[in-house]
């Protein structure tokens, strides 16, 4: 597995949700009439920084809202949580309260993170209020279709409500647990190789360590690991192929070095083929949904001609396949990626 450094120089624009994409979301029950919007939460004048338990700056801040707005916002957020988790059944929030609202200026989506607590037992959960960016929605949908993970979100106008994805942030895991004596490093390296392959095929970009989490499941004789993306803003926008390959981000160097130490070229190829087989089966089982998403996304203008040309040329060289030079959109590129995966698996 190669390693190297790649950077993203420009901030990606927020792309509006098209009428065709809204119809798709309505059909798959992703749309809703939310009681609170992203813009409602922007009406604050002061905030204070949020630190972690060690006193470090988290890049989040906690807004302070006028007292007369707090009740309305909190009630609206509890209803939104009920819509996200239980199709609007308000009984699940009868004993819950909004403990904190945090805001992040870092990144593209500038999300709000909401902490909701059950007052009966102090069990808490998080969810997010974000700008409804078409790129992110396509990323969430492709994650639902191709990965072994389920995603849960709702869209209303310019607002997106998204479920929290639990796990240890990839950078924190690399710093604190990568050398844990109970963890099999080969299993971790294997998961990174498969994650890298899936990102490349589905064109999910910017998977630096803080944009994915590690989920750990104890098994009867070992621990199982799964890397899950938590940020989908850079879905098929950039033109640099390396943006879609987590191995080329310096923030992921610890995972790359682990793979280089514990895996051979033969086992790397084996794990890549395993991921390709999984993607092929998902593409077949979700073919109707995938076709509908394709028909919507191919009309959507969420990248630039320069990026599309750069990426298609890069993939043509990477795979030694001139068919990529005929791709006119990012959707064409993903479609060709999937067709090639199917050909490789069944050959």
Mean pLDDT, to the nearest integer, reads 94
Number of structural domains: 2
Q: Estimate the global geometry from the Cα principal axes.
A: globular
Q: Could you give the count of β-strands?
A: 10
Strand order of the largest sheet: 1-2-3-4-5-7-6
What percentage of amino acids are in beta strands? 15-25%
> What is the terminal-to-terminal distance?
24 Å
Main pleated-sheet profile: 7 strands, antiparallel
Spell the H/E element sequence.
HHEEHEEEHEEEHHEEHHHHH
What's the Cα radius of gyration? 21 Å
Report low-confidence residues grouped into runs of 5 or more: none
**Structural class of the secondary elements?**
alpha+beta
Task: Name the helicity range.
Answer: 40-55%
Instruction: Please report the number of helical segments.
Output: 11
């Amino acid at each position: 597995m190669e390693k190297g450094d790649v950077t993203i120089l420009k901030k990606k624009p927020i792309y509006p949700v098209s009428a065709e994409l809204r119809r798709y979301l309505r059909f798959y029950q992703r749309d809703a009439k939310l009681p609170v919007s992203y813009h409602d939460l922007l009406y604050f004048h002061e905030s204070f920084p949020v630190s972690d338990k060690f006193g470090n700056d988290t890049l989040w801040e906690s807004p302070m809202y006028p007292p007369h707005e707090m009740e309305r916002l909190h009630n609206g957020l509890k209803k939104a949580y009920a819509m996200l988790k239980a199709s609007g059944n308000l009984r699940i929030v009868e004993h819950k309260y909004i403990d904190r609202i945090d805001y992040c200026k870092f990144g593209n989506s500038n999300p709000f993170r909401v902490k909701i607590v059950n007052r009966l037992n102090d069990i808490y959960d998080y969810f997010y209020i974000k700008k409804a960016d078409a790129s992110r929605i396509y990323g969430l949908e492709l994650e639902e279709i191709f990965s072994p993970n389920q995603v849960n979100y709702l869209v209303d106008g310019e607002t997106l409500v998204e479920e929290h994805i639990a796990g240890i942030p990839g950078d924190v895991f690399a710093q604190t647990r990568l050398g844990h004596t109970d963890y099999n490093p080969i299993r971790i390296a294997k998961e990174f190789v498969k994650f890298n392959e899936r990102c490349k095929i589905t064109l999910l970009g910017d998977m630096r360590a803080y944009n994915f989490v590690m989920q750990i499941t104890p098994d009867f004789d070992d621990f199982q690991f799964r890397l899950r993306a938590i940020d989908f803003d850079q879905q098929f926008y950039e033109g640099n192929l390396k943006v879609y390959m987590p191995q080329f981000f310096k923030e992921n160097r610890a995972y790359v070095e682990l793979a280089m130490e514990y895996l051979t070229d033969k086992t790397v190829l084996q794990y890549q083929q395993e991921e390709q087989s999984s993607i092929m089966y998902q593409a077949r089982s979700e073919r109707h949904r995938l076709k509908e998403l394709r028909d919507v996304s191919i009309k959507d203008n969420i990248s630039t001609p320069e990026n599309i040309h750069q990426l298609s040329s890069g993939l043509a060289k990477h795979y030694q396949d001139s068919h990529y030079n005929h791709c006119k959109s990012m959707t064409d590129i993903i479609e060709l990626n999937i067709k090639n995966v199917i050909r490789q698996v069944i050959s």
